[in-house]
Design goal:
- The chain is built from 14 helices and 16 strands.
- It starts with a helix and ends with a helix.
- The chain is elongated.
- By secondary structure, it is an alpha+beta fold.
């Protein structure tokens, strides 16, 4: 305690150059007699501290006492101060007292040369608070519980022993030992909600060396051969390793890659629009062509995916009966009567207890004749859809507009009619 107080006195004197015993006593919550004993201890340790009487006097350090002249070069100071500032900027520290004190000791004014914000563009206070809780749970070795949505949209409550935060592929992930699954898992931060920092701690475990999520038993990869238009070059180089890219004459780029064959891959390829062409395998050309027809129908009929009118002012183009029949009728489309997902493909349907396809619900919401989340609420489903809307560029419109439409349409679905 005394050593800490001596350093505090030294820091204050370096910063202020002169303070009275009364000011120091009040600041450190000790008596003036204790302050004088501390000054004697500093002097005995070789610190050039002295008292000066009269107006403007007090306890002072000799003007030539500057730490950088005796211990560290200017380059050394810069490295220390920049390292501390980087630590604070990246969230490794919670306050800047250490940086401020060393800056004062070095007689250097800090420069805000680095700023790091872990949250995404347009993110709010909730996302920042969530990131801070994850960091706190790791540094304090505190259990963390949260609601998690996996890549299939399935929701579960997890309690984990956090190990480390990793930034990979443009996203933040938490590597943690999941007490629910009794194994190491990787969680994407953007899919974590309702975070709670628990009171209990946990024993130290060694995390896996590689940050790789476990592959599901149904995992199937596909080797893709893609061609990209020159206008997509910046995205191609963001997403793919240079070894996967082969430039063509005219600026086009060929890419050979392997991805899990799932719904995410479809949305990823579609995100490039007409800037990308699948060269092989051929069946993925057919998949994209079919999805493009569905997309065309949505806009040509003036309807949104929810079936609500997209152009209430009457705008939009009419389709001929032949065109309408060729694609499909929005009125004839089926939607999951829980989450509202279109049921355009047979594989999208859930399963009854006897294995037959459900005519009302998707496989995310309904399996083996029962809801996958029997405790789901209408507000929860709307929240999931609003999150999807936000993460995918607001295809259903701005948040307030999308929520208004959802609160009008979702109560008409079978599950929520019966709720």
């Amino acid at each position: 305690m005394k050593n800490s107080r001596l350093f505090e006195i030294l820091y204050l004197l370096v910063e202020k150059r002169a303070l009275t015993a009364g000011e120091l006593a009040k600041r450190l919550e000790v008596s003036e007699r204790t302050i004088y004993r501390d000054i004697d201890a500093l002097s005995a340790a070789g610190i050039p501290v002295f008292t000066q009487k009269g107006q403007g006097g007090g306890i002072r350090l000799m003007d030539q006492f500057i730490l950088d002249r005796t211990l560290l070069s200017q380059a050394d100071q810069d490295e220390i101060l920049f390292a501390l500032q980087a630590t604070l900027a990246t969230g490794g520290g919670t306050e800047g007292d250490t940086l401020a004190r060393l800056s004062a000791l070095f007689r250097r004014k800090g420069t805000d040369w680095l700023e790091v914000d872990f949250t995404g563009w347009g993110s709010g206070a909730v996302e920042r608070e969530n990131f801070a809780l994850v960091k706190q749970s790791i540094l304090g070795r505190r259990l963390l519980s949260f609601t998690y949505y996996n890549s299939s949209g399935e929701k579960s409550r997890r309690t984990v022993e956090p190990a480390k935060l990793v930034f990979k592929g443009g996203c933040w992930y938490l590597s943690a030992f999941c007490q629910t699954r009794r194994d190491w898992r990787v969680f994407r931060l953007v899919r974590m909600e309702n975070l709670v920092l628990e009171e209990g701690g946990f024993p130290l475990r060694t995390p896996p060396q590689q940050l790789e999520p476990p592959l599901p038993g149904t995992y199937r990869g596909v080797d893709l051969h893609l061609r990209f238009h020159p206008s997509a070059a910046w995205r191609v180089r963001d997403y793919f390793h240079p070894s996967q890219i082969t430039p063509e004459t005219g600026g086009h780029l060929l890419v050979n890659c392997t991805f899990p064959e799932d719904a995410w891959l479809l949305s990823f390829l579609l995100s490039f629009g007409s800037q990308m062409e699948v060269l092989s395998p051929s069946y993925w050309r057919e998949i994209l062509a079919g999805e493009s027809k569905k997309l065309w129908a949505v806009y040509e009929t003036g309807q949104t995916l929810s079936g609500l009118e997209a152009y209430p002012d009457g705008r939009g183009r009419e389709m001929s009966p032949a065109q309408y029949e060729e694609v499909f009728s929005m009125e004839e489309r089926k939607f999951c009567q829980c989450c509202g997902m279109p049921l355009d493909n047979p594989e999208d349907a859930g399963k009854e207890a006897d294995g037959s396809p459900s005519g009302d619900y998707c496989h995310y919401c309904y399996r083996d004749g029962a809801f996958t989340d029997p405790e789901a609420t209408l507000d929860g489903i709307i929240s999931i859809n609003l999150k999807f809307n936000e993460e995918n560029g607001f295809p259903f419109g701005p948040r307030e507009e999308a929520e208004k439409k959802m609160r009008s349409w979702f109560p008409t679905l079978k599950r929520w009619k019966e709720a």
